[in-house]
Every structure is written in C-alpha cells, then in structure tokens.
Amino acid sequence: METYNVVIIGGGPAGLAAAVSAYDAGEHSILVLERDTQLGGILNQCIHNGFGLHTFQEELTGPEYAQRFIDRLIERKIEYRLNTMVLDITREKVVTACSRADGVTRIQAKAIVLAMGCRERSRGSLNIPGFRPAGVFSAGTAQRLVNMEGYLPGRRVVILGSGDIGLIMARRMTLEGAKVLVCAEIMPYSGGLKRNIVQCLDDFGIPLKLSHTVVDIEGKDRVTGVTIARVDSHMKPIPGTEEHYDCDTLLLSVGLLPENELSRGMGVELSPVHKGPVVNESLMTNIPGVFAAGNVLHVHDLVDYVSEEAETAGRQAAAYAAGSLTDETGREIPIETGGGPRYTVPETLDPARIGDQLTIRFRVGSVMKDRRVNVYLDGDRVLSRPRRVMAPGEMEEVLLTRKMLDGHPDLKSIAIKVEEG
Fold first, then answer.
1. ∠33-38-43 over CA atoms, to 5°?
2. Same-fold call for 1-120+256-328 versus 122-254
3. Reported pTM
C-alpha cells in the first residue's frame, strides 16, 4: 500500500488550489487523483471570460484560469495522476483507485481533501412527457461538444432553466450560428448571475420566460418541437397557456448536484439542503482528517470563491497531517439562520480555531429586496450590512472577525439573519 500525507480527490480548480495551498503550508507529501485526461476540470470547456477578477485582478478565460494553478502545481513538483478513477474511500482514509497504467492501487492518507466538483441534473429527474429523441442535451454536455469537440448540437434551440451554464450556452449557440428561440425558467426568478442574463440573453434579444416549463417534447428520432406552459405557485402547468416552438434541440440547465457518492460511501454527513458535506470552520467533515471544498461542498457561482475555499481546505489538511490541527474540538457552535438564508458554509465553528477572520457563505431562498444581513453573537448584533437585492443565483457572504469573537469569550450562539431594512 502506498502512503501519502495529503491525498486530493479531483484535479479541477478546487483540487489544484488545495494542493498548492497544502504545499505552501509546508506539506510536500501530496498526491492529486484526477479521472480525466488532463487537469483543470470543468474550466477546460469554459472558454468565455469573466474568471479571475477576484483572484488575479484580471479577466481570464476558464482554461487560462486553470493553467495559472496547473503551472503552480508543476513548479512545486506536486505529484498527480490522470486517468485515475477513485472507487472507494474508507473512514480510515484508505483510497482505492484504478487506472490503465497502474491497475488497482490502494493509498493510505493522513488527510484527504474531497474536491470532486458537481454534475448536472438530467432529464430523468424532471418527468417531462414525450419520447426520448436525439437532440436533448444538458447544457454542460452541449458546452463540451461545441467548445472542445467542435460539434454544433443543433440549429433551433430551446433552453429549459436559467442557470449560468444555460445562459452562457444561449450566447454560445447564437455565436455559432444557431437560433435560440427562448429560455424558460420554472421559478419566478432566474437561477443565474444578473450579468449573465444581461450579457447572454438581453444583448442577443433572447426572451426569458419566468414561471414557465416544458410540458411536451415532440419527435421520435430527433426533437421536432417543444411546448412550454406557464406554471402556478405550486409549479403545476396552467392549461391554456401552452406555447409551441419548432426546434431540433432542447438544452437543460436545471441545476447542479455536488458529486458526493464517494463521500456518502465513507460515511460523511451530507446536508439535506445544499447536498454537500456538513463542515466546520476548518472545512473538515464529521470524519476527522477529511476535508471538502469547491462544488462538491456546495455549488458556487464564481470559481474565485472555489479557489479561496480550497486554499483553506488544503492548508487545514496539511495542518492535520502534521498533527497541529486537533480533531477534538472544545466546542462546535452551530450557526443558526433566519429570515432568508437556506444554509451556511461552514455550518459550525469553534472560536478557538479561527484566525483573524472567517468567511461564512450562504444563499437565500427567494428574491429579497431592501433587507439587512445581520450577524448576532449571543443575541448581540455585531454586524449589519444593507442589501438592496439578494437572489438565490448569487452567493452571499459575511466576515466574522477575531475582534467580534473576542468580545464574546463565553460564546454560545451565532445567528445570521436577513431582516427588514
């Protein structure tokens, strides 16, 4: 059995940032396992710009952003293996992986960083009536076909869902010569960033129909048409509101799910809300020495935040492997929410293990206007921030500082609430 101090599952933006951070923290026995043929993860097919504004203070494409971290990995001579599928991880941190080059291998780790990313919801989870003709793609699959493999999936396109990938593919398909007829969203608000709605739909005259969904897919061998309809407050189609579009392609952008089969198999506690691991301030799961970061933890809207989060996970994994991060906490205080936040990451924290500051991220459950985000420690409001508009598609964050915590030495409760302005 091979042994490494830190093993990182996934070579996408989270895995790369975690590896570099662990190395810079003094840990040099690191192994990155990646199932694809190259490092970089989903960024390799994201050829649009808009990445890196926070991390590098410049606008980069996805491959350019990934390459910055790949270069850092190579400069530090951090070991990585491509075409390697992780089959199983035990609670004792034994990783079973397989590849054509090495066969089945077993690796004993002192610390593990889960960085497997996320996957798209499929048509099967939507229960849309109709046959199963060619021409129905997830937006991410279409993105790979167009940007990496040089295929155009269709000429007349309907998009269901207004997540960021769907919005970006509306623009991409248009630029490649296709006609995007409509983008339908079942919710009364968009699931994507405001800037993507403006740049990808509004700038190209593509209509966005909120509170609409697909009720029928026509065609047996290939999609020939799609019918959409308005939905009521219970998400049920309203008879008489149907609209038909002659098209040959339907793209689905109906949400992302953290890729947590390995996590579940090893006994990691998963959140019923964001579907990722429940973590503390060190991004450590309920299994000591197992950390999580990036989209496997919760779905992000900006890759810069993925990298920032993963740097924390890598640094803490290095500390755990070195024995300087104890898994026996003095007190884990749950972070309570109210008035809007659906969840927080982290979910708990130990004040004794926080440095100068801690970033707590969350998403609200609906569009909210003219509110304040308030942070309470033992009922005392220590932070109040006005927010003109908050939407589920955009992540929110608050900064908890050492000074705030020092003012409450016997802290028993932490609450983040969205309240009337």
1. 100
2. yes
3. 0.94
